[in-house]
Amino acid sequence: MNKTLKYTVLASCMLTAYQAEAARGLAISATSHGSKDSFYADAQGNISGIVSTLKIENTGDETLSPGDPDYTLTLYKYVYSKPGVDLVTYDIPQQLAPGESAQLTVAWPGFNISQIIEEGDENKASWRDRYDIRENVSAHTASTTPWLEIFPYKASFTLVPENSGIAVTNPINFGFVESASSINLRIRNTGAADLNVTSISVPEGFSVTPAAPVTMAGLASENPQEYQPITITFNPAVSGAYAGEMTITAEGANPVTLPVSGAMIGEDDF
Question: Which of 8, 9, 200, 250 is the most buried (most CB within 10 A)?
Fold first, then answer.
């Protein structure tokens, strides 16, 4: 064989062997969705605002550059014992040489709430699930916390104390009083849609301020209103025991009803 041809063939074989051994690789670690774990759909059902942090490392022999095939990250809903549900993909904007690593903050594109709802779960008040991250060069995945809770675009609310966000479930009892007495509470807006309180009814001897209607911007809006203070006052014109129900009604939301009671003691009662 011609010596020049022999060396050419040998070099070609060596190059082919090197190309066969060279491999692309990527790893991800330290994934987190941060401290925010509640997200609200807009009127079209779109979810936005999810931000994650993670570390990426080039574990292969080739430089990875923006625009390379599969040099992306995917946010997906983890489903136990089933394939996950891919939601959105993010193009990695940073070049990585072999062995190089980088920290990323990923502002995920939006997706529609219909992508996460499983058959039979359409009427749930919210969906709390694990959302993991996958890199698409080597298809490594990373379990990511916290779990995220997704709320549909609807109105909902509870009644809570002035110093807590936990719903009031016990009767409101003013006890025995000799003069007007008030209790401060708050309407807590828990829905993505605007909350339009149409009525707040109380039995004789009680009053509420402010009076309905009351409108609170939904939690999906740019300037949401989560709390609205209200004051319930017990001040009957005639002494005696009073009891009944307070009911708060809002458009498109389940009403809140609680028993209220109190006893006014007059001078003639001693």
Answer: 250
